[in-house]
Structures are given as structure tokens and as C-alpha cells.
Amino acid sequence: MDIVRIPLGGWIEGGLNWLTSEYSVVTRGISGITQTGIDGLNDALMWLPEWALMAIIVALCWRASSVRLAIGAAAGLALIWNMGLWDPMIETLTLVVIATLVAVVIALPVGIAAALSERLYRTIMPLLDFMQTMPAFVYLIPAIPFFGIGSVSAIFATVIFSMPPAIRFTTLGIRQVPVDLIEAADAYGATRGQKLFKVQLPLSLPTLMAGINQTIMLALSMVVIAAMIGADGLGSEVWRAIQRLRPGDGFEAGIAVVILAMLLDRLTQSLRK
Q1: Rounded Cα–Cα distance for residues 216 and 161 (Å)
Q2: Chain-wide mean pLDDT for the chain?
Q3: Among 91, 99, 104, which residue's Cα sits nearest to residue 41?
Q4: Burial, 32: exposed, middle or buried (Cβ in 10 Å; 0-12, 13-18, 19+)?
Q5: Taking 60 as the threshold, does the pLDDT of residue 1 lie above it?
Q6: CA-CA distance, 110 to 167, in Å (whole number)?
Q7: Transmembrane region positions (predicted)?
Q8: Which residues are within 8 A (CB) of 152 and not within 5 positions of it... i.e. 6 or more apart?
Q9: What is the Cα–Cα distance from 173 to 9, expressed in whole angstroms?
Q10: DSSP codes of every residue in 14-75
Q11: 117-153: string of b/e by CB count within 10 Å (b at 16+)?
Q12: Which one, of 135, 214, 129, lies nearest residue 170 by Cα?
């Protein structure tokens, strides 16, 4: 007995085709602005000599965390420089920074709204579950018809992939603020905005920073995968090594990704504390 197949894939493809045709002007505008931001930040970081940027990062690690992290950052960055992967590392860092900033700017208001509205909370949580269980490679598919091949598509896919943790942790942090503190603010006549900005957000800041940390880690992993659709950086070095069957080059690029991930993780954890 033949089962009637639901044409879900056809519906999705048709919807994407309609969106790309109807909103092509908007996507081209977003693409141009995003590409300008990528090029600007990338050129600014590459304008600095390697030793100068390394000194800035080491000083930031020492100031924000400890001498141990500063020494580790210096050793790791020196190894990346020695392997000839400094420019790809800068390109990866640029994509991660821009994608994280966009994801956080979108996620914070959504998380705050979900924390303050029970109806929105119940609506958005299943959607976040869906977004976090969807395989990462799937996000690359709609990025291409919207923005084409390149770094802008990588930013789009990375923002969608890395945004759920920031929304979840923002909502969690605000909802975990003790009720007695909220009642005390009400007793003193605080408005809704005063309660949010002077009580709820400051008390939930450690949880918010944990969400930002997770967003950065997911953004880094997605930027590496996005080399499949033309994104520059360390991911493209790994992808090129796979295509040319050069395991040594692939492992060098992978080690550089690990060093960058550890540096970003330790730095954001230090800022959280």
C-alpha cells in the first residue's frame, strides 16, 4: 500500500524561493552592510602588527584574569603565528565577533520579553528546542539563496545557530531573581523599567554572561563549518586540507581553532566572574 507523502520539503523550498524573490532588495542591503562591517573589522585587526595585537590580547587576559592565562595566550598566539595561520585566525575572530554581537543584540530583548511574559515563554521554548536540535549543516542551506556564497552567509547561519543559548540564559537569569527582592522593589514604588534595569538584570548578569559564553563557542564552531559555503578563516584551511588530503595542514588549522576557542572561553569566563 502506497502512503501519500507530505511534500514538506517542497513547501519549504517554495517558501524560501518566495522569500528570496520578494525580499531580494532587503537581503542585498543586509549583505552589503554586513560585508562592510566584516571588511572593516578585518582590515583594522590586520592593520596592527602581529606582535602589537598579541600584546593587546595578552594584556587583556592578564588584566581580566591572571598571569597564567596571559602566558598561555602568548604561547598559543605565538604558535598560531609560527604556523603561518595568523591571517586566517584574524578572519575567524572577525566572523565570531560580528556574529556574536548580532546574536546577543537579538537575543537579549527576546530573552527579557520571554522572562516577563509567560505566554511568550511557553511559545518560544519549543522553538528554541527545535533550533538547538537541528543539525548545524542545515542552517547553511537557506543562507545561500538569501546571501550567496561567502562570509555574509556564514554570519547569517552562525547567528541563527548560536542565538538560542543567549535567549535561554537571559530568560533563566531573570526568572531566577528571588521573589522577595522583586516584592521589596515593588514596596519602594519601583516602576517596571526600574525593576528590570536596577534589580533583575544586575542580579542575572552572571547567568547572562554564561549564555554569551555559550553563544561564542557555538559561533566559533559554526564559523568553522561555514567554510563549506565559502567563509574565510581557519575553517577554510581545514576544508582545503580535506580536499587536498593533507592531514598535517588540517591538524595545524584544528590546533589553531582549539587555541582560539580556549582563549575566548577562558576570557569570557573571567569577565563573568
Answers
A1: 11
A2: 85
A3: 91
A4: exposed
A5: no
A6: 6
A7: 51-81, 93-116, 136-161, 208-231
A8: 30, 31, 34, 35, 38
A9: 37
A10: HHHHHHHHHTHHHHHHHHHHHHHHHHHHHHHHHHS-HHHHHHHHHHHHHHHT-HHHHHHHHH
A11: eeeeeeebeeebeeeeeeebeebbebbbbbbeebbbb
A12: 214
* pLDDT of residue 24 exceeding 80: no
- What percent of the chain shows pLDDT beyond 90? 12
- Cα–chain-centroid distance for residue 75? 25
pLDDT per residue as tens digits for the range 113-162: 988 888 888 988 888 888 888 888 888 887 887 777 888 888 888 898 88
Closest to 193 measured CA to CA, from 105, 124, 103, 112: 112
CA distance 59 to 245: 38
Helices and strands (H and E) in the chain: how many: 14, 0
Nearest Cα to Cα of residue 202 among 178, 233, 224, 237 = 178
What is the rounded distance in angstroms from the CA atom of residue 106 to the CA atom of residue 28? 20
- Is 174 strand, coil or helix? helix
Q: Which amino acid is at 133?
A: T
Note the residue count of the chain: 273
In this structure, which amino acid lies at residue 237?
Answer: E
| N-to-C CA span, the chain | 62
DSSP 253: H
